[in-house]
Design a protein that fits this description.
Layout lengths: L17 H18 L11 E6 L2 E6 L4 E14 L1 E4 L2 E4 L5 E5 L6 E5 L10 H14 L4 H9 L6 E6 L4 H7 L20 H9 L1 E3 L10 H16 L6 E5 L6 H13 L5 E5 L12 E7 L16 E4 L9 H12 L8 E4 L7 H13 L3 E5 L12 H6 L39 E5 L16 H13 L19 E4 L4 E4 L9 H5 L3 E6 L12 E2 L7 E12 L4 E5 L4 H4 L4 E4 L6 H5 L31 E3 L2 E3 L5
Parallel strand pairs: 10-14, 10-15, 11-14, 15-16, 18-20, 18-23
Antiparallel strand pairs: 1-2, 2-8, 3-6, 3-7, 3-8, 3-9, 4-5, 4-7, 11-12, 12-13, 17-22, 19-21, 19-23, 21-22, 24-25
Length: about 625
């Protein structure tokens, strides 16, 4: 929108001071946030001062909090602050923090400190001043902060954050406003807002942040005590509940609290539709040593153990899903606490499958998240699990076990003898989410399909150069050449005729896996597996092309070469490359590869790229045109 030109001044004005010009520049920079709908004025006592270009010093009184949207690098210079359960002290290095509009806003809170003796006040002031000086905070900023300094406060340095992953995501038009506020409000702009906006964050209302209910606080307190004490062995915590009840947020909060006291926590992902550390469609076991201060697309990493299931739902093949869960769980060594995330499918066969998983994994604690009316699922008390038949296991009073096929799920049967479930021993903790529309299907802030695409984009962002610069289009990167004879091939989710297999593989998302069997190629064509193996997945890639003459796959992947040497199997599942990657290829003249508008949609299996936009939750909407 063009700026309005005001009436000409009758008197020549004095040249603005350098400080005035800088403040005006920051205000103009932050005007884009105001156009999106600005936040309430800064709270009394909130002090945000420009520390350097793209950096700010924030002074928080004890218990004072800042709820914000955006991204930055956070470093505590004096005192201590808490962010999503993780306590940040002055001795710790800077932490990347991501609070996008697609997720619950993060809240930075100053932790209370005991008031030191008056004799130490001068030393404390000197320590705060020295910390700011060590991080190149300008003298003018130091003076402003020290004018409001008290020994109980916290001094935080916020710096502009630019990573290869965020640059790659923001380069796609549907996600270009990912870190901007979405709610439209009356503009209310303060100098503190301008300083924060120069770093890349915007203050928002506290009700946008995480609401820790009383039941959540009680459950967290008990879990922390159990994990630190280890009186009855290393705890295994299984978190379950319907969709849109806050399971993922609870897990992040719990892990961050544990990392305040423990060097690491194990995390097992059993929700193949909404994964935390990997692209979708995986069951994985990760060792977490760093706090989780952002959504999944900001911390994609290689787990200790990972299997590519290949779909976002296991309804069509629950037996293979259980085989995969058992295979991944076998790598857990019971040295540190384990947090297990489960699917939101808790109705019908989904609940029976959850009972099977509880019997298989034998957790010491179960956190059940649900609204108070228990319409979605019954309370999973030990007695209920003991008596209720699962999908493949029977309860105490069930006479006969459900017959199963020959897929191998029979082999994971627990050691209770003839499959009769012994009484489980675990502590059941209830958490009742209290945010609006909790547990209501379809009321998520953003559609689950978009969140899955963002995780894939976060993974592909690892292909970008770590140097700050222009985003490199994926088609400009050089792929690996893989001979047909070097890898076996398997389509997981459907049957494909061998004559059409290359059409299915081309321009597809594939899991790069390792099977124990040696690959033997007796023909010139690809090596095709007749069954889907349960095997280690080392990473993912895009098949950019298939060269039939030279018998080569062209694969684009961030997996390092030393790990690629172990790959001997490509698994193709029902996980698609995000539409924006295909339609947003920059620098392509003429028809975009793999995308066409001249197509016969009556052909079986064909389809259009779908639009997903204006997904709403509460009173906000994250506008996303995902064509």
């Amino acid at each position: 929108m063009p700026a309005r030109r005001g009436p000409p001044s009758r008197r020549p004005r004095r040249a603005a001071s350098r400080g005035g010009r800088a403040e005006a520049a920051w205000r103009e920079f932050a005007a884009s946030f105001a156009r999106a709908g600005m936040v309430p004025p800064a709270e009394a006592g909130l002090a945000a001062v420009e520390a350097a270009e793209g950096a700010a010093v924030l002074l928080l009184a004890p218990r004072q909090a800042l709820t914000f949207t955006g991204k930055c690098r956070l470093r505590c210079l004096y005192g201590a602050v808490r962010l999503l359960g993780f306590a940040v002290a002055s001795h710790q290095p800077g932490l990347p923090v991501f609070s996008p509009a697609t997720h619950c806003a993060l809240t930075l809170e100053a932790l209370p400190a005991d008031r030191p003796p008056a004799a130490d006040l001068r030393q404390l002031r000197a320590a705060a001043r020295a910390a700011m000086r060590a991080h190149s905070v300008r003298r003018q900023a130091r003076v402003k902060v020290m004018a409001r300094f008290s020994p109980e406060c916290a001094v935080v340095l916020l710096e502009h954050l630019d990573t290869p992953v965020t640059r790659f995501l923001l380069s796609h038009l549907p996600l270009s406003r990912l870190f901007e506020p979405q709610k439209k409000e009356e503009p209310s702009f303060t100098p503190e807002d301008a300083v924060l906006a120069s770093v890349g964050i915007v203050k928002c209302s506290p009700d946008r942040g995480l609401l820790v209910s009383e039941s959540m606080f009680v459950a967290l307190e008990e879990l922390i005590q159990a994990c630190c004490a280890e009186d009855e062995g290393v705890p295994v915590v299984l978190v379950c509940g319907p969709k849109n009840t806050g399971k993922s947020t609870f897990n992040r909060y719990l892990i961050n609290l544990l990392l305040n006291r423990l060097p690491s926590v194990e995390y097992m992902e059993c929700d193949i539709g909404q994964t935390e550390f990997t692209p979708p469609g995986c069951v994985s076991l990760s060792n977490v040593t760093e706090p989780i201060l952002g959504p999944p697309f900001t911390h994609q990493q290689t787990p200790r153990k990972m299997v590519y299931y290949g779909q976002t739902s296991c309804e069509q093949d629950t037996e293979r899903y259980l085989d995969v869960v058992k295979y991944v769980f076998s790598s857990y060594k019971k040295e540190v606490p384990l947090v297990i995330n489960t699917m939101g499918w808790v109705k019908g066969e989904g609940l029976l499958l959850l009972i099977d998983i509880i019997r298989l994994l034998s957790p010491s604690h179960i956190v059940q998240m649900d609204v108070y009316d228990w319409k979605a699922m019954a309370p999973l008390t030990p007695e209920y699990v003991h008596l209720t038949p699962g999908l493949y296991t029977k309860g105490k009073q069930q006479a006969k076990r459900k017959q199963m096929g020959t897929s191998g799920a029979e082999n994971w049967k627990s050691s209770e003898g003839e499959g009769d479930a012994s009484a489980p021993e675990y502590k059941l903790l209830f958490v009742h989410p209290e945010f609006p529309r909790a547990g209501v299907a379809g009321e998520a802030r953003v559609h689950s399909g978009i969140l899955r695409d963002m995780s894939i984009l976060g993974y592909l962002g690892q292909l970008q150069s770590p140097d700050i610069g222009a985003v490199l289009p994926l088609h400009s990167l050089v792929p690996y050449q893989v001979p047909f004879s070097a890898v076996a091939l398997r389509v997981i989710h459907t049957d494909v005729a061998p004559t059409n297999i290359m059409y299915a593989v081309n321009a597809s998302w594939v899991g790069l896996c390792r099977i124990p069997d040696e690959i033997r190629c007796q023909t010139d064509g690809p090596v095709l597996l007749t069954q889907t193996p349960v095997c280690d997945c080392l990473g993912f890639g895009i098949v950019r092309g298939v060269e039939m003459e030279k018998k080569l796959y062209h694969i684009l992947t961030p997996v390092p070469p030393e790990n690629l040497r172990l790959v001997n199997c490509l698994l193709l599942g029902n996980i698609a490359i995000p539409n924006c990657v295909l339609v947003g290829q920059q620098g392509v003249e003429g028809e975009i590869p793999y995308v066409t508008s001249d197509y016969n949609y009556s052909i079986l299996g064909s389809g259009k790229l779908k639009k997903k936009k204006h997904f709403k939750r509460r009173e906000y909407a994250f506008e996303c045109d995902y064509a």
